[in-house]
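User: Let's play a game. I give you a shape written as tokens, and you guess the letters that built it. Ready? Here's round one.
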């Protein structure tokens, strides 16, 4: 029997229709009985990563953010309290007056110059575990309210130093120090409120020491006794050295940029003699 072109076309169309119907019902049965989706199985490998997977990645990333508690607990191991011991008349007094933190090997600590400004006094440091150490050397920065002190027999991890030239207003910060010369390892938090500020520094006797410029302003609480402590960012790097709050102002505190400390360390390690 002769098959006309019309019959061939009809047969081909019928075959395609039957194939589609069989595939549809087979897929439906597999989906319900075996929880298998044939089309999805063959196409999933060529599809881009699902939105659910991308969300999971983001959640994992966010969960790795370091908390203030974690940073404070770790950094405190490298933070010390500076204590003054002085003979006055027939009495000897001793009290906490400032803070410092480790920036170099073999007990090299930075603090504010005004914290150890009394040439007639003896200065000691106390670590987080209340161990007491003597200071063997004081290396003074003539241009800034900074000193490096060498502590006999003391060893603790160095705190990582950031690049303070890259700071931005609004960055979250954490301050650690001996608040009011009484409450050791006090932690406060806030943000960078301003950059390039100018203030007058004061010593432990509330006397003016010098005019300072280029400071970091923060609303993190920094009281007398916090002087010399670290100001850290949320990655745990030190961005500045805390100073006392400006007299008469609320929620306004200042820190010296950490890059000044880097320069001081370089001079110290190079054996440069600094004169005030």
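Assistant: Ready! My guess for every position:
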């Amino acid at each position: 029997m002769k098959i006309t072109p019309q019959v061939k076309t009809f047969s081909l169309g019928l075959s395609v229709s039957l194939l589609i119907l069989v595939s549809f019902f087979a897929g439906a049965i597999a989906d319900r009985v075996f929880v298998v989706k044939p089309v999805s199985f063959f196409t999933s490998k060529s599809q881009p990563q699902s939105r659910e997977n991308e969300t999971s990645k983001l959640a994992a990333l966010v969960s790795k953010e370091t908390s203030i508690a974690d940073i404070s607990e770790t950094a405190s191991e490298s933070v010390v309290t500076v204590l003054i011991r002085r003979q006055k008349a027939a009495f000897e007094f001793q009290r906490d007056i400032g803070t410092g933190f480790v920036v170099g090997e073999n007990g090299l600590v930075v603090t504010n110059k005004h914290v150890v400004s009394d040439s007639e006094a003896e200065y000691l440091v106390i670590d987080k575990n209340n161990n007491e150490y003597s200071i063997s050397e004081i290396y003074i920065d003539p241009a800034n309210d900074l000193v490096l002190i060498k502590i006999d027999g003391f060893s603790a991890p160095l705190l990582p130093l950031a690049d303070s030239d890259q700071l931005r207003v609004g960055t979250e910060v954490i301050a650690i120090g001996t608040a009011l010369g009484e409450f050791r390892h006090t932690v406060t938090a806030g943000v960078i409120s301003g950059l390039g500020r100018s203030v007058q520094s004061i010593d432990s006797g509330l006397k003016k020491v010098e005019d300072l410029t280029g400071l970091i302003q923060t609303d993190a609480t920094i009281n007398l006794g916090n002087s010399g402590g670290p100001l850290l960012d949320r990655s745990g790097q030190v961005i500045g050295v805390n100073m006392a709050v400006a007299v008469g102002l609320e929620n306004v505190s200042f820190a010296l940029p950490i890059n000044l400390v880097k320069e001081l360390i370089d001079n110290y390690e190079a054996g440069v003699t600094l004169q005030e």
